[in-house]
Amino acid sequence: MIKFDLIYDADFLDQSYKQASKDILQQIKQEISDGASGYYNLPYESQDLIDKVQAYGNAFKHINTIAVIGIGGSSLGTKAIYEFLRHKTKNTKKIIFFENPDPIDITEKFMAIDKNSTQFLLISKSGSTVEPMSIFKAIIYNFNLKIDNNENIIAITDHDSALYKFADKHNIKTFTLKDNVGGRFSVLSSVGIVPLTLAGFDTKKILDGAVETLESFLNGDTKHIFDKAINLAQNKDKHPINVIFSYSNTLKEFTQWYVQLWAESLGKIDKDSKRTGLTPVGHIGAVDQHSFLQLIIEGPRDKTVTFIKIDDFENSLHVPKYTLDYIQKSDYINGHTFNELINAECDATMQSVHEQGVNVDIITLDKINEENIGELIMYYELLTSAVGIMLNINTYNQEGVELGKRILVKKFQN
Amino acid sequence: MIKFDLIYDADFLDQSYKQASKDILQQIKQEISDGASGYYNLPYESQDLIDKVQAYGNAFKHINTIAVIGIGGSSLGTKAIYEFLRHKTKNTKKIIFFENPDPIDITEKFMAIDKNSTQFLLISKSGSTVEPMSIFKAIIYNFNLKIDNNENIIAITDHDSALYKFADKHNIKTFTLKDNVGGRFSVLSSVGIVPLTLAGFDTKKILDGAVETLESFLNGDTKHIFDKAINLAQNKDKHPINVIFSYSNTLKEFTQWYVQLWAESLGKIDKDSKRTGLTPVGHIGAVDQHSFLQLIIEGPRDKTVTFIKIDDFENSLHVPKYTLDYIQKSDYINGHTFNELINAECDATMQSVHEQGVNVDIITLDKINEENIGELIMYYELLTSAVGIMLNINTYNQEGVELGKRILVKKFQN
Fold first, then answer.
1. Domains plus CATH for chain B?
2. Is B237 exposed, middle or buried (0-12, 13-18, 19+ CB in 10 A)?
3. I need a labelling partner for B172 at 20 to 30 A (CA). Which of A205, A281, B101, B237 fits?
4. d(CA B319, CA B338)
5. Active site residue ranges of A
6. pLDDT tens, position by position, B197-213
7. Could you tell me which chain A residue has the CA closest to the CA of B296?
8. Does residue A8 contact residue A227 with C-beta atoms inside 8 Å?
9. Pairing mode of beta strands B360-367, B2-7
10. Which pLDDT tens digit goes with each residue over B158-171?
11. Which residues of chain B have pLDDT under 70?
C-alpha cells in the first residue's frame, strides 16, 4: 500500500486542472487503444510469462547465479526491483549485471562467476546494441561457452530482431517483447519478469501491484497523479529540476531507474520544435542531506522535491540507551529504532525544504514488498506519460542518442 | 598525469578573464594566509600523519577490515579514492562504510564483520552528528565492544570536540583535524588519510599528486581552472546545471564526492542576500548514455558537461573476433579492447553533445593511479573555491542544513 501526499503551492481544484486531467486520461486511453506504447498491457500480458519460466523450473535447478547482459532499459528496472527486495526474499539466486563496457568491471565480474551454475541472459531489444553484444562475445570466449543448444543461455529481444534470428538458428531459448514497449518502459515485460522469476522472486505480486495502480488511474481515482503531472509541466521553466530523495538504501537503484525514465522520456524537441524537458536528480536520504540538501535550501528555487519513505522496515534494530561521556548531544535518539530515526530525518528535511517555499510531495510505502514496487513502477510510468502529454512531446522515442551512435561507428571505420 | 581541455564557446583571451583570474588567485592566496579554509595546507600537513599511522603498523597486523563510521564529508572522499584504486592495489584491507541510518543496510553490514579482525574508525568533526553516533552505539552493543583502552577503535575529530574528549577520557586513539577544514574539503586530512593508509594504500603518492596541482595553480599555471570557473559563474543563469560524465565504474564514488563538494559549497545565499548556486549531477558513461544523454541532446540547453576519461586502463580485455549469425551489426568493434570501446564512446558522445552547442570539457587521466586521484581531488577543490569567489559567497559554511537538524531534535522531544 502506498500513500501519496502533495504539499504544493497550487490550487488543484482550479477548473484548468479538471480539464487537463480529463484530457490526459483521454489521451492515455487513446495511447492504449492505438498502441502508441505497449507498457500499459504488460501487467496482464506478463502473467503467462511467469508460468512459462516456472515450467522450465527443473532445467534451472543447478543454477545459483543469473548474469544479466544488458544496458539502460535492459538492466535498470530489474536492478531496481532486485535491490529493493533482495534482503527480504529467502533462497533467491544472485543476479550479476554486465552493463558497462568497462574492462575492469567486466574482469572483476568474470572472476565472480562459475559458468556451470550461471544462467546467462542476453537482453537487447534490437540485438544490435554494441555494449551487450561485445560483452556477450567476451563471455563466450572467456568461459568457452558453446552456442548451439546451450541451455545456459537465454535471449530476450524483440520478435524477429537480429538477436531473435540468431537465437532461433542456434536453438537458444528466447523470450520476446513487443516493438511498442520501449526499453525504459519494459521492466514488467520479459526484460524484467524473466530474470526476476528465474531468480526466485514472486513476480506475480509485482504485477498485481502494477495492475492496482493502473486500474485506479484508468478509473480516474488517482487525482494526485494528474495534479502532479499538470503542475510539473506548467512550471517546467520555474522548476526545471525534479529531485527524488529516497529514504532507504534499498531504493538506490530505483532512483536510477527513475532518472532514465524521466530524462529519456521527457527530454525532447516538442511538437512546436522547441527544446523541452525536466531534469531528474536522484538522491538517498539521510546520506545526501549531508550533500545536496544545502543547495535545495539556500540555492536557486528551481527544484521540486519528492520524498519516498518506507513506513515499516520490518527491522527492530535500535539505538541502545547508552550515555557516552561528553557526546550526549545525540542522546535524544536513545531507545528509538533506526526505522524511527531515518523516517524522522525524512520528515524533518521535508519540513525544512517546504518552509523555503519549495513544492514537495511524499510517497509513503507501508512496507518493502512486491506489490509496492509494482505500484511504484506503474505510478512513475503513468506520471511520465501524463507529463509527456502536457509537454506535447513524443514520450516514447529517443532520437537524441542516435547521433552519438553514428559517430561511434565512424570512429572504428576510419 | 591529467590533461584538461575546455571546448567552450567563449573568448578566454578576453581582458575580463585575465582580470578575474588575477582576482581569484589573489583571493585564494588571501584565504590561505587568513585561514578561511585549511584544505590548502593538507597535502603538506598530512605527510606526518602517514608516518604516524605506519608507526602503529604492528598493532594492526591482525586487521583485515576497516569499518568507517561517518557520513557526508566523513566518508565520501575516502570512498572515492578506495573505489578508484581498490582493484589495482594488492594486499589492501577491505573498507566497509557505515553511513546511512538505514536499519537494513546496517544489519547486512553487521553480518559481514568479524569484530576481532576489524578496526572501527568513528569519524565526526563535531562529535555530535546523530547518524554516526547512533550507529557507533549500535556497534558497541552488537559486537559487545569494550570502550576503555580499546585498540580496535580510533576516533577522528576536531581537536577539543566532544568526541575528542570522550576518546581522551577512555584512552582511545585519536587523530584530529583542524577547525577550518570543512567535511567536504577534508579527504586529504586525517579523515581520508588515516583509513586509506591503514588499509594499505600509498597515500603519500596521493598527497604528491595534490601538491602538484596546488603548486601549479598558485604559480598561475592552470589557466584552464580560472577560465572554467569564471565561465561557469558568469553563465550560472543560462547553464545552471553541471553534469559530470565519468567513463569508468572506478569513478562512480568520485562523482558522488563531487556532487557534495559542489552542492554544499556553491548552493548559498550570496553576499547580496540572493539565492545562488550551480546544480551538480553525476553520471557514469557509457551506461548513462542510455539514460541521461537524450535529455542533454534534445532537452533545454541549461547544462554544461564535463567528461572524465582514463586513457589507459592497463587492462587488455578485448572483444573477440566472432561473427555471430544475424548479429553482425556491432562487428566493427571486433578485435578492439574494451578500453578502446569505452573511450571511443566517450569521444563520440562528447562530439554529439558539443554539436548541440553545449559547452563541454574533457579531463583525461593517463592511468588509474594514486597521483592522479590526488590531482583530480585538488583540481575540483580549487575549482570550487574559484567559482565560490566569483559567486560572491561563503564557500565553506553550510547554514542551510541546520534548520532540518533543529526540527529533527524537536520531533523526539515532543
1. 2-33+206-399 (3.40.50.10490), 39-201 (3.40.50.10490)
2. exposed
3. B101
4. 7
5. 264, 290, 405
6. 999 999 999 999 999 99
7. A267
8. yes
9. antiparallel
10. 999 999 999 999 99
11. 414
